[in-house]
Specification:
InterPro entries: HTH_MarR-typ (IPR000835), WH-like_DNA-bd_sf (IPR036388), WH_DNA-bd_sf (IPR036390)
GO molecular function: DNA binding; DNA-binding transcription factor activity
Distance between the termini: 30 Å
Pfam family, one: MarR_2
Radius of gyration: 17 Å
Oligomer: single chain
Helix content: over 70%
Protein name: Winged helix-turn-helix transcriptional regulator
Keywords: DNA-binding, Transcription, Transcription regulation
Length: 143
């Protein structure tokens, strides 16, 4: 069957929407942050003292969207911001102690979601789906 006959794009969008809504509810309940905010914290956790531009690139988001999320995370006390030593015009972000705690909590919450997915799909189905999603992401990413 073709992607059109399978209504592939529609099914992909619907699955993403339902899974994001479920994950957001789970994360908000257990951590007080959304999946998008958890993603920002995860990028900062990978490379402390990073920039909003790097976060936007890693998450494939517009810098304006990242700015709004970073502002919210700063207000929540999960991130700190300071001027870069090598470029006084630029800012760098780091996790606060509370931000590290929320990042660990988010990781646990995502582990629970991944266990739910693993209960629904076989290992082979997971591998095929992960490869297919990676291919689609790579192909549709604007360079």
């Amino acid at each position: 069957m073709t992607a059109r006959q399978l209504r592939f794009h529609h099914r992909l969008q619907l699955a993403a929407q339902v899974m994001k809504k479920t994950a957001d509810q789970h994360l908000l309940q257990h951590t007080g942050i959304s999946t998008a905010q958890a993603a920002v914290l995860a990028v900062v956790a990978e490379q402390e003292h990073t920039s909003q531009r790097r976060i936007a690139a890693a998450l494939k988001l517009n810098e304006s969207a990242v700015t709004a999320m970073v502002d919210r995370l700063l207000k929540l006390g999960l991130l700190s911001r300071r001027r870069r030593a090598d470029d006084r015009r630029a800012w760098e972000l780091a996790l606060t102690a509370l931000g590290r705690q929320r990042t660990r909590q988010a990781s646990s919450a995502f582990n629970a979601i991944n266990r739910r997915i693993e209960s629904l799909l076989s290992a082979e189905e997971l591998e095929i789906t992960a490869r297919a999603l990676a291919t689609l992401t790579e192909h549709f990413t604007e360079h």
